Amino acid sequence: MKFKGKVIITDVDGTYTGSDEGVRKNNEAIEYFKSEGGLFTFASGRVEYAVKAVVPDFFELINAPAVLANGSYLYDKDTDARINEICIDTSFALPFLAEFRRRFPTMGIRINRKKGFLTPEMNPPVYNDLKNYFSNVQTLPFDRMPGDGWNKIVLIGTNEEVLAAHEYVKENYPGRFASSMSCRTLLELLDPQATKGNQVRYLKKFLGDCTTYCCGDYENDIDMLKKADVAVVPSSGMPKVVEMADIVTCHCKDGTLAYLIDLLDRECKA
Fold first, then answer.
1. Which domains does the chain carry?
2. Which pTM was predicted?
3. Is residue 225 within 8 Å of 231, Cβ to Cβ?
4. Could you give the CA distance from residue 215 to residue 50 in angstroms, rounded to a whole number?
5. Does residue 84 contact residue 75 with C-beta atoms inside 8 Å?
6. pLDDT reported for residue 135
7. Staple 88 to which of 109, 150, 159, 182, CB 3.0 to 4.6 Å?
8. Tens of pLDDT along 240-255?
């Protein structure tokens, strides 16, 4: 069991995904890695009822709890349970969102909860973001929204709007959120302790003695990469993320995970 004690935790978009051929290579390598005692899971901004839209084999691939909602909790597929769930303080978040909406009226607001998504308005950015999940969406004014179980707030807009919103949050609400861009058009806000990196550290304690290989490519992966035992970044990642890598793999289109697992295999044989 050459990979016993090794745990690979990977981001989805731009790391695990990239091309159909890259995903095929990744899946074959992941099955080999698990057959030799390795543990594999994902760290994603998505939630358990939405991940299969992007990774159809998500639950078949993982054999360790997944980091979901960008670090709001771990999800154990065997028990269908959330572990170490960290929710946003809505006594602060609700008035913040009301003010944010006044300042950025054209941006969309999406809130993730265990039972689905909330939004104050189904405007074009929210519609495009949630068009595959309408059965899970409630449109409610802020004063009628449930005040518990908020995993994350997602602010949606053009790249220019999202960059401006990011600066606004950092300058006016320092320390109140863990904030990061998960792509050019999405800014994600969570409780300050709810990060991919903190959940990776919790997962390491949960699993016991192991070495964590964390793979990511974008700004919302930086905290996870900093707190990994080994930081792995595809060459196609953001330049500032590539710079912090312990291992730089091939382009994500060519199979980031396949590259990493082949490297670990060759190290075992050396």
1. 6-85+194-269 (3.40.50.1000), 90-190 (3.30.1240.10)
2. 0.88
3. yes
4. 21
5. no
6. 76
7. 150
8. 999 999 999 999 999 9
